[in-house]
From TrEMBL:
<dbReference type="Pfam" id="PF11013">
    <property type="entry name" value="DUF2851"/>
</dbReference>
<protein>
    <submittedName>
        <fullName>DUF2851 family protein</fullName>
    </submittedName>
</protein>
<dbReference type="InterPro" id="IPR021272">
    <property type="entry name" value="DUF2851"/>
</dbReference>
Amino acid sequence: MKEDYLHYLWKYKKFAFAEAKTTAGEEITLVKTGEHNQHSGPDFFAAQLKIGDQNWAGNVEIHLKSSDWYVHGHESDPAYDNVILHVVWEHDVEVFRKDNTVIPTLNISTYVNKDELKKYQHLIQRKGAWINCEKDFSSIDGFELALWLERVFTERLQDKTKVIDTLLDQYNNDWEAVLFMLLSKSMGLNVNGEAFLNMAQHIPFNVIRRVRTDQQDLEALFFGMTGMLDEIGDVPYGAELKKRFEYLAHKFQLKPNCGMEAKFFRLRPDNFPTIRLAQLAAVYSKHADLFSGLISAKTKKEGYDYLEEIDISPFWKTHYTFSKEGTPRKKKLTKSFMDLLLINAVVPIQFSYAVYKGRDHSELFRLVREVAPEKNSISKGFNALRENCVKSALESQAVIQLKREYCDKNRCLRCAIGIKLISQES
């Protein structure tokens, strides 16, 4: 038995509350369960009860055993002075207030539906399962699952918004600068994302604004700040970029080589940091209105319009690195890579900006549903449990949040799927 199950029973009234009595035999009339507290202090605030003939308003504390009150030191914590009911699974000791009166106790195990208890135990005790509900996941109603995945997708966006808010605080609400950081990190993928973000954070965005009309200047900044021009040798194009970077670094008082080297190891050539930074330079040199364009994109096509029609520098059409020349290729952003940029940079900043402006963000669901789902172990896992579960980027982002924040943490009782499986009739 876990305490979160008792929280679930109390919060959703999943016990015979009409029959409930204290351990002293007084009838309990449940008027309001109270607000579930996720932080320190009593578990439910502002509950309203009638115990016997007395009306009570205050807090409710929940434990597996009554004696846990003393184990946790609540008897000396003023935060628990206003507890009006102690809800426990096992009543093993009386608990007293400071005035020596007994805090009423509800032994909730007496009033629990035994069938639901078995379902909970069956769900939570599946050892070795990928997710606890994997055998029952396909039985969940499709409409209910879709609603829950929308909710979880929104939670994931809210988590990303916290990162964006932190960046906005650091950069004086410069939304264009924050978009630059998000795009930079996304261009680097998992391998070079942090190095690219570090680069972006060391280039004041006012510098980008001043040089963005010159694609080579942008390349010089990006390659120079990531240390890729330090030992360029006698490559003419590299030497030209190094010369430009030294001038720009002196002019804008930049500190080159931010301390994080870009990596090539185990990357396909199209994902080499040289190519991705050259593409980033192409995007910013082409669109002076990049932020306004992407922030207002309502469809995948509108997002693509600002990303796909870029013209990489001639040098990079025949090179993947500074040293070796190859067959000419345009090296545009692929649709699958643009989808990643939309998922990881554009949609999160659109959501954050809508919240900041107090605007409706429901149109984001349309955009993200047009974007193809990511192919990873989590999306494959859920598709294996339920055919065509992950149809778009909305679902692929949602199941990442679901797996990491609910399934992996055994938070079945905070998941709509887990609650449904426990409470549904056999």
